[in-house]
Amino acid sequence: MCNLEVHLSLAIEAKDASRVSQLLDDGAPMNFELFAQATQNKCMEILQLFLDHGWDINTESSLDSLIPSALIYTFDDIELVKWFLLHGADPNKRCQMRDATPLSYAMYDASMDIIDRLFMHGGSTQQGQLLHYASMRKDENGIQVLRYLQERDPQMIRSRVNLLLDEGYPEFAQNCRFGACTPIQYAACAGALESVKFLVDQGANPWRMDMYKRTALSYAIHGGHEDVQQYLRTLA
C-alpha cells in the first residue's frame, strides 16, 4: 500500500472529509477496500467525495469474488441504503463467483424495510437466487421474507424450490463441491421450522440429496434442530 493510500485509509477511519478531499485531489488511489471502509464508517460526505472523483458505486471487490458491491455493507442503516440507491447502486449487481447480488445478501439478513426499498429501486426476483438466500435466515423474519418473495413471484418459487444453489448456472460444476444446498436444506440447517414448512407447502422435496448425499433431515440432525427433525420425519 503506497503512502497516499495509507494516509487516505487513516483519514477515512478518522472521518476527516477535508483530509480525504485533499488526498484525492493529490492523486491518492481509490479502491474498493477504501470505499467499503468509508461505507462501514457510514460517512456519506466521504462517499460523495469518492463519487465526485470518478468512483463507480457498483464496483465489485477485487479481493473477494463473493462481494458484488459496497451496497452489501449498508443493510444495518436504512438512510445509508437510501443514499446508495439514490446514487445509482444496483441491487442486482452480480458478484464474480456466482449469481449473488446485493439483494441476495439482503434476503439473508436485512430488514423487510430494506428489502422492500431494494425492490422499489429495481430489485429483481429473476436474479440472485433469492429463494436460497432467504431460506438461510436464522431469525424470526425468515418466514416473512419467504412469504414476501412468494407474493412477488410465485413462479420463481416453484421453479427454484428443488434446485441446489447455482444449479442451472454455468458456475454450478465449479461451485457445487463447496456444499451447495436446496432451499429446504438451508432452512433445515438454520433450524427455521416455519421456513421448512413453507417450502414443503411450495413443493420442496425434503428427501432430495445434495452432492454429498445429505438430505434436509441430515442437516437438521447435524445442527441439533429437534423440532425440524420431528417435522421432517412425519413426511417420511
UniProtKB/TrEMBL annotation:
<dbReference type="GO" id="GO:0000976">
    <property type="term" value="F:transcription cis-regulatory region binding"/>
</dbReference>
<dbReference type="Pfam" id="PF12796">
    <property type="entry name" value="Ank_2"/>
</dbReference>
<keyword id="KW-0677">Repeat</keyword>
<dbReference type="InterPro" id="IPR050663">
    <property type="entry name" value="Ankyrin-SOCS_Box"/>
</dbReference>
<dbReference type="InterPro" id="IPR036770">
    <property type="entry name" value="Ankyrin_rpt-contain_sf"/>
</dbReference>
<protein>
    <submittedName>
        <fullName>Ankyrin repeat-containing protein, putative</fullName>
    </submittedName>
</protein>
<dbReference type="InterPro" id="IPR002110">
    <property type="entry name" value="Ankyrin_rpt"/>
</dbReference>
<dbReference type="GO" id="GO:0045944">
    <property type="term" value="P:positive regulation of transcription by RNA polymerase II"/>
</dbReference>
<feature type="repeat" description="ANK">
    <location>
        <begin position="179"/>
        <end position="211"/>
    </location>
</feature>
<dbReference type="GO" id="GO:0005634">
    <property type="term" value="C:nucleus"/>
</dbReference>
<keyword id="KW-0040">ANK repeat</keyword>
